[in-house]
Structures are given as structure tokens and as C-alpha cells.
Specification:
This protein is mainly alpha-helical. It has one domain: Annexin V, domain 1 (Orthogonal Bundle), CATH 1.10.220.150. It has helices at 3-15, 43-52, 69-77, 80-87; strands spanning 32-34, 39-41, 59-61. Strands 2-1-3 form a 3-stranded antiparallel beta sheet. A hairpin with a 4-residue loop joins strand 1 (32-34) and strand 2. The longest helix has 13 residues, at 3-15. The protein is globular. The chain starts with a helix and ends in a 14-residue tail after the last helix. The model has no long low-confidence stretch (mean pLDDT 88). This is Arf-GAP domain-containing protein.
């Protein structure tokens, strides 16, 4: 796959609302992604995801790793806002899930 095409798609993905921050902690400028969950991550949260094992979260660098077209498709179809709506659907409003940024 053409590397310029991949970078263009990833740049487009980062412009989708919610994806310019880490999905877990809302830290700015995420440089990592969970390719099976379709989310962006900061370096600290990517380490947590790596510790879960690849059967839960497959972490890749947005810029350093090779990307397959299927990985990009998952990222474009999901994203941080969609995924958090699913995982946080039943969390009470008064429950703080993230550290303050």
C-alpha cells in the first residue's frame, strides 16, 4: 500500500472529532493507536494497553509502524467518540473515570 495514502488517511482520522486527544485520558497529541479498538492513545495509555495483551488491545504507532488497509478501515469506522459511547454507556454521570487534564 502507498505510504502517502496511509499517512493521508491517518491524518484524516486524527481530524475526526475526539481523535486528536487520547481516548482514555484525553491527553493531547496522541501518537499511538489501538488498531483493533479503533482509538488513539498517548504514550502512557498505550503502555497500559500493551500490558493488557494483544488479545485485548493491539497497539501501533501512528507514524512508526506499518499499517494495513484493514487497520485503517477499523480506525475510520470507529474512533474515540464512538468507542467511548459504547464503553461508557452505563457509567453514572457523577463517576469520574479520567484523571483531570
Amino acid at each position: 500500500m502507498n505510504i502517502q495514502f496511509i499517512f493521508t488517511k491517518l491524518e484524516h482520522f486524527l481530524k475526526i472529532p475526539g481523535n486528536s486527544k487520547c481516548c482514555d485520558c484525553r491527553g493531547s497529541d496522541p501518537r499511538w493507536a489501538s488498531i483493533n479498538l479503533g482509538i488513539t492513545l498517548c504514550i502512557e495509555c498505550s503502555g497500559v494497553h500493551r500490558s493488557l495483551g494483544v488479545h485485548y488491545s493491539k497497539v501501533r504507532s501512528l507514524t512508526l509502524d506499518a499499517w494495513e488497509s484493514e487497520n485503517i478501515k477499523v480506525m475510520m469506522e470507529l474512533g474515540n467518540e464512538v468507542v467511548n459511547k459504547i464503553y461508557e454507556a452505563n457509567v453514572p454521570e457523577n463517576c469520574s473515570m479520567r484523571p483531570p487534564t
